[in-house]
Amino acid sequence: MSTRVALVGGTGKLGRVIRAVVEDDPDFELVAVLGSSSSLDEIDGADLVVDATSPIVSIDVVRAAIERGANLLVGTSGWSEERIARIRPLVDDAGTGAVFVPNFSLGSVVGSALAAAAASLFPSIEIVEAHRETKVDSPSGTAVRTAELIAAARARTGPVEAPHIDQRARGQQVASVPIHSLRRPGVVARQEVVLSGPGESLTIVHDTVEPALAYAPGIRLALPAARDARGVVVGLDAFVDLQLRHRSTRPAEGLREDAPSGQVARTSEV
Description:
By secondary structure, the chain is an alpha/beta fold. The chain is 30% helix and 24% strand.
């Protein structure tokens, strides 16, 4: 039996990509496509509600789906950990599942994971993200998620160094990480994470060039995960085995903390 899907925001850029993926998957049946003039009552009867709207509308979509006992896949930007925390008890009480995906691009997921894996090794970390001029929110959901992952990786190391953060030109701090947002024509989506330490820097860059091609694999991965989810899950990385490990503290350079007494063990693990 196929999963009945209601797609909210199906006429937008991301919505059109999601719609094509759903219609191409025999395990899912698209029963409703909602636009800006639609009533949320049109999601009635759906097993899975997919949200590809805007940050302002998204909260209403999420609440409507929870009230109806439907699972959720949220692709709308703007859902920080703080905002998601307010939704967790509602999802838990309803006994449903909600998956929040800031970015469906697998390359973006890898880039953010690499930044988190290296985060404890560099005292200074900043994010520069760019999107087309029509994107209404900033910083982007991807940048917020990346900053939150960096902060989690530095839980024992402490906040990043961000001098002169009181100056507006230094960007908006998210989880102590300065984020600089560009909104300009001629770009789809780009994120740079610049990690700096004494005498060196590392820049991790991800570019989205063609959204339909970049997002489709991640959407295919997220749909069954959201259908089967229980509770709140954040990030496509929850369903991708990246085999990356980060360390929030380090022993002496290149040594493992778990080396047997009297032995020196080298490690290349980040």
